[in-house]
Design brief:
The chain is of the alpha+beta class and about 425 residues long. About 25% of the residues lie in helices and about 35% in strands. The strands form four sheets. A six-stranded antiparallel beta barrel has the order 2-11-14-13-12-15. Helix 2 runs antiparallel to helix 3.
Length: about 425
Amino acid sequence: MSTTMRITIASIGLAVAAGAGWWWRTARQDSAPTWRTAAVESGDIRASVSATGALSAVRTVEVGTQVSGQIAELYADFNDRVKKGQLVARIDPVLQKQAVQDAEAGLARSQAQLAQAKEEFERTSALHAEKIVTETEFNTARTNFALARSNLASAEIGIERAKQNLAYTNIYAPIDGVVIERSIDVGQTVAASLSAPKLFVIANDLSRMQILASVDESDIGSIEKGQRAEFTVQAFQNRRYSGNVDEVRLASTTANNVVSYTVVVSVDNPDGTLLPGMTATVNFITGEAENVLSVPNTALRFRPPTADTSARPAGAPAGARPAGERPTGQRPQGAPNGPRQRMGTVYTLQGDSLVAHRVRVGLSDGTRTAISGEGITAGMQIVIGAGTGGTTAAGGTANNPFQPQQQGGQRRPGPPTPF
C-alpha cells in the first residue's frame, strides 16, 4: 500500500471519528433535560369568586292609575327629580265629573224617598195604634222606611266613590326620587279595567344602588353577608368600584341545567356614574393574604420525569422519597391532632440535580399560590416544567394547583408539546 493511500485512509478515519464524537455530544446535549423555572415572589394574594349582575336602584316604584281615560297633561319627564305628593300627570276628568254628578242626583233621590217612607211609616204607625190599619200594612210601611234609609247610605257611599275616582285623575309622585322611565304621552288612552297601567317608574335614591348578581351553586358556599366585593362596568372599564354583600337569597334559579343564586350587593354611587341597568362584573373577595411568598401553580403540579433519579436529597439512596415527602394523608411526626394542613412539594436546582422542598400550601388566586417552608425565600428559582434541548427558561402560569394534570417528563412519541 502506498504512503499516499495510507494517509488518505487515516484522514478518513479521523474525520469519521470526529463526526461520531460531535454527533454523540450533540445527541447527549439534546437529550439532557432542561428545566423551566420561575421566581418565588413576595406580595399579596387574593382569592375571589366571579359573577355578573345588573345594577338597579335600591327602591323603585311603578306609578299607575286606578281610573281609565285619556292623558290630558304631563308634568314630569325622564330624569326629572320629583317630590312626594308632586303632581306628575292628569287624566281627562270629564267622565269622572259626570259620575260625581250622577251620584249626587242619586243621593238627592234617595233622600226624597227616605222622607216619603218616613212620613208613610209615621202615619201608618198612628193608625195601627188605633186598630185602623192591618198588621200587614204596618209591616210594609216599616220595611219601606228601612229600605229607604239603606238606599240613602248606599247613595252617600256612591258619591264618595265618584269623588275619589275624580281625585284619581290627578297622578301624584308616591316618593321622592328620579323619574327613570315614562311609559305614556299626552293624548294616550290608558285602561285600568283589569290591571293598573304603568305610567312612570321612580327610583328613590340613585346615590345608593344595588347589584343583583347570579352566583353559581358551586361558588355560593364561599359567599356570606358583609363580604367585600369589587366590580367593574363596561362604561368605565379602568375604574374599580367596591361594595358589600347585603343578602344571599335562598331562592334558586335553573337555566340550562345550571343552578344559581341571587346575591344582593349594596353599592355607593355618590358621583352618579353608575346607572340603572348597567351590567357589572363582580369579584367577591373570599380570602386575602398579605406579604406572603407565592409561586406559579405549575410549580406545585410539577413532578420530575419518571426516569430521573436526581430528584432526591444529596446522598440519599436511589428510590428515596424527596426530602420531607411522605405518603399522601400521613400526618407529620409529632404534629398535633386537628385539621390536616395542605402540603405540597416544589423543586429547585442544585447543579444538574433537583432538590425537593416540602412546603405548606396557602391561599390561591387561580394563577399563583401562597407557600411557606424551610429554606423558601423570595427570588428563589423554582422548577415549573421540564423539556429536552434548549436552555433553561423562566416564567409560566397555570390554574388550580390541585387539579390533576400531566407534568413535564419523558415525552411519548408524537408532536412536541409547547411549553
